[in-house]
Each structure stands twice: as C-alpha cells, then as structure tokens.
From TrEMBL:
One term of GO molecular function: zinc ion binding
Record-linked Pfam families: zf-CHY
Domain of life from the UniProt record: Eukaryota
UniProt GO cellular component terms: mitochondrial intermembrane space
GO biological process entries: protein import into mitochondrial intermembrane space
Organism: Zasmidium cellare ATCC 36951
Presence of keyword Translocase: no
Protein's name according to its UniProt entry: CHY-type domain-containing protein
Keywords from the UniProt entry: Metal-binding, Zinc, Zinc-finger
PANTHER family membership: CHY-TYPE DOMAIN-CONTAINING PROTEIN, ZINC FINGER PROTEIN
Domain CHY-type: 1-71
Keyword Acetylation: no
Lineage summary: Eukaryota, Fungi, Dikarya, Ascomycota, Pezizomycotina
Length: 122
C-alpha cells in the first residue's frame, strides 16, 4: 500500500532493480540508487492482479486502461493531506468527549431553594 498516492491503481516494476513499487517516491524511500528511466514499463493491475507492458513512445488514450480488466489506471493522484484533529479513544469504549444533548442543566438553581436536595449541602 502506497503512503504517497492513496488511489494507486497499478504497481510499477522498476527497470533498475526489478522490484515492484507503487510510485517513484516509494522507490526512493526503499532503495539507495536513483530510479532508472525507461520507455517500456511493466505494470501490475491492483484490480485483476495481472501484469502488462506499455511502450511509452506510443502511449495514447486507449493505453490508460488495463488490457485484462479495463481498469482505468491513469487517474489524478490523491495525496494524503495533513489534518489537525482531536485524538481520542474509540467513542464506543470511552464517550467522555461526547456531549449528551438530552441532559439539560437546571436554569436559575441556587443553594437556597429547597428542591429536596438538602442532603447535598452537608
């Protein structure tokens, strides 16, 4: 699973070390050498798990699809974005961060009013 491109549709076999990567940044993170440029690329579709080759010199619009399952693999990349959120436990386990709208505070309550809660005053 690629952490740089969230919607990667294919894995690419690098021509330099013959290993599979989802993107060029994944290759740079895992290897010490630079990625070799090649005009013939080998892809593995993540939908049907079959491999195919494409010649980049003759790449046209019909080559944007997997030849086995017609999965459109040339799409705009979705990259992860930084977000600032409040971290907490699972709400099903610990619901202290949730506000219960059903419980309403008593309005205008004072300690001098006797509402049967005299035992609380001590």
């Amino acid at each position: 699973m690629c952490k740089h491109i969230l919607n990667a549709q294919v894995s690419i076999r690098s021509p330099c070390c013959r290993q599979w990567f989802d993107c060029a940044q994944c290759h740079a993170d895992a290897q010490t050498h630079t990625l070799k440029q090649a005009m013939e690329m080998t892809f593995a579709c993540k939908k049907c798990k079959k491999c195919f080759r494409k010649d980049m010199n003759e790449f046209d619009e019909s080559d944007e699809y997997c030849p086995h399952c017609d999965n459109h693999f040339v799409i705009e990349a979705v990259e992860p974005k930084a977000r600032l959120e409040v971290e907490g436990e699972d709400v099903r386990k610990d619901a202290r961060m949730l506000k219960d709208e059903r419980v309403k505070a008593k309005e205008g309550f004072s300690i001098w009013e006797d509402e049967g809660e005299a035992s609380r005053l001590g």
